[in-house]
């Protein structure tokens, strides 16, 4: 057995491993104020309106609870971590971060959010780990903020919430960001964003645009655009992390390899150039995935099988998905003690450089 008998049977007890949750979210008062300002304008982006517009205005218990949890970097968060047996959270500014903002506001609020997160980590150094937020629409400023985050704030990972105003990191104009991440040896967590305006309609009309499905489709597409654009041929040491069981990409690996090669060989698209390796090779060699939102043993084991046990990490997706039962289910997975410790603890310690 991995767990000692807990005093309260509902609270996951001490285990033979630390539980490090790696895709956990927060928000700052300044970011909230800017979101309010954006939402009050005309022609609000439909994805942003459907996502933060919902959470910030809905009287539902879910929305109210999420907004309260997001705003806390002290007692409430730690109480919830204790209730779920979470030893450490790796925390990032919630999606869409600053990416919905205009460029200059985004640069300023990224820095301010990073300062505030760093203070939270200083207050709770054994419980919190911070991710560096950047404004991708200013790649030079983003590269500088990565450097500041690493050297001044002691953070060792970067969060980017998928597209920025409909633009993808496969475009070489963003590649200063990859150069900085590679040079400082920090992984980029490619987290979902609300779907861009030119993609959302067929998803939103049936309510499938959000975390239920649309997030995964769009973020998986983004990761594939980065791979097929040759980013990892140009930056071979660059590390990326994707959540939600790798946004289903492990399940796609076989077909991606076959059809990508068929597309290249037939010169079907000007935009599809040869790359050095198969798409699945980059997924295995440059990517880590987390199980955020997917507390499901078969999917975790399949991913460990096809990516390797060193590449699959635990995440909860607090406060959007916060369930003690999921921690119990994962504690009870039929998996060797060694692999379970990698999943919950040591892979995260390696990837996020947690001392
Ligand atoms: C949701 C889930 C939103 C996970 C998130 O970021 C997230 C959601 C805005 O259920 O809406 O990280
Ligand atoms: Mn998330």
Q: Would you give an account of this structure?
A:
- It is a single chain.
- This protein is of the alpha/beta class and 355 residues long.
- The chain has a single domain, classed as TIM Barrel.
- The protein has 16 helices and 9 strands.
- The chain has helices spanning 29-39, 46-57, 61-70, 75-84, 103-123, 139-151, 175-183, 201-204, 214-228, 231-234, 243-247, 249-265, 279-286, 297-307, 324-331, 337-351, and strands at 20-26, 88-93, 128-130, 132-133, 158-161, 188-191, 240-242, 287-290, 312-313.
- A 6-stranded parallel β-sheet has the order 4-5-6-7-8-9.
- Helix 2 (46-57) crosses helix 3.
- It is globular, with a radius of gyration of 20 Å.
- The structure holds 4-hydroxy-3-methoxybenzoate and manganese (II) ion (MN).
Helical content band: 40-55%
The unreliable regions are: 1-7
| Computed structural class | alpha/beta
Rg calc: 20 Å
Measured distance between first and last alpha carbons? 27 Å
How much of the residues is beta strand, in percent? 5-15%
Number of strands: 9
Keywords for this entry:
355 residues; globular; six-stranded parallel β-sheet; binds manganese (II) ion; disordered N terminus; alpha/beta; TIM Barrel; binds 4-hydroxy-3-methoxybenzoate
Task: Chart the SSEs and their pairings.
Elements: E1 20-26, H1 29-39, H2 46-57, H3 61-70, H4 75-84, E2 88-93, H5 103-123, E3 128-130, E4 132-133, H6 139-151, E5 158-161, H7 175-183, E6 188-191, H8 201-204, H9 214-228, H10 231-234, E7 240-242, H11 243-247, H12 249-265, H13 279-286, E8 287-290, H14 297-307, E9 312-313, H15 324-331, H16 337-351
Parallel strand pairs: 1-2, 2-3, 4-5, 5-6, 6-7, 7-8, 8-9
Helix pairs in contact: 2-3, 5-6, 6-7
This protein binds 4-hydroxy-3-methoxybenzoate and manganese (II) ion (MN).
């Amino acid at each position: 057995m991995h767990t000692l008998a807990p005093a309260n049977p509902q609270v996951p007890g001490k285990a033979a491993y630390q539980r490090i949750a790696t895709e956990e979210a927060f928000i700052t008062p300044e970011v909230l104020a800017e979101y309010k300002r954006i939402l009050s304008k005309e022609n609000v982006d439909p994805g942003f309106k459907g996502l933060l517009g919902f959470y910030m205005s809905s009287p539902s218990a879910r929305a109210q609870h999420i907004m309260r949890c997001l705003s806390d970097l002290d007692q409430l968060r730690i109480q919830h971590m204790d209730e779920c047996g979470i030893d450490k959270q790796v925390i990032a500014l919630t999606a869409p971060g600053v990416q919905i903002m205009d460029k200059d506001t985004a640069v300023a609020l990224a820095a301010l959010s990073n300062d505030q997160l760093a203070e939270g980590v200083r207050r709770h150094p054994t419980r919190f780990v911070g991710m560096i937020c950047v404004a991708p629409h200013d790649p030079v400023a983003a590269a500088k903020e990565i450097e500041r985050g690493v050297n001044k704030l002691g953070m060792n990972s970067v969060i980017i919430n998928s597209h920025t105003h409909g633009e993808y990191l496969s475009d070489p104009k963003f590649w200063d960001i990859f150069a900085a991440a590679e040079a400082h040896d920090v992984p980029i967590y490619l987290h979902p964003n609300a779907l861009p305006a030119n993609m959302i309609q067929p998803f939103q009309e049936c309510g499938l645009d959000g975390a239920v499905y649309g997030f995964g489709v769009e973020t998986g597409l983004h990761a594939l655009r980065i791979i097929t654009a040759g980013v990892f041929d140009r930056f071979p040491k660059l590390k990326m992390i994707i959540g939600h069981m790798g946004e289903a990409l492990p399940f796609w690996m076989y077909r991606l390899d076959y059809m990508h090669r068929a597309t290249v060989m037939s010169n079907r698209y000007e935009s599809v150039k040869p790359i050095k390796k198969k798409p699945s090779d980059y997924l295995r060699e440059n990517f880590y995935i987390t199980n955020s939102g997917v507390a499901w043993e078969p999917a975790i084991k399949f991913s460990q099988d096809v990516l390797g046990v060193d590449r699959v990490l635990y995440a909860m997706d607090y406060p959007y998905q916060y369930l003690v039962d999921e921690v119990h289910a994962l504690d009870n997975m039929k998996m060797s003690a060694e692999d379970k410790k990698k999943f919950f603890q040591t892979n995260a310690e390696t990837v996020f450089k947690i001392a």
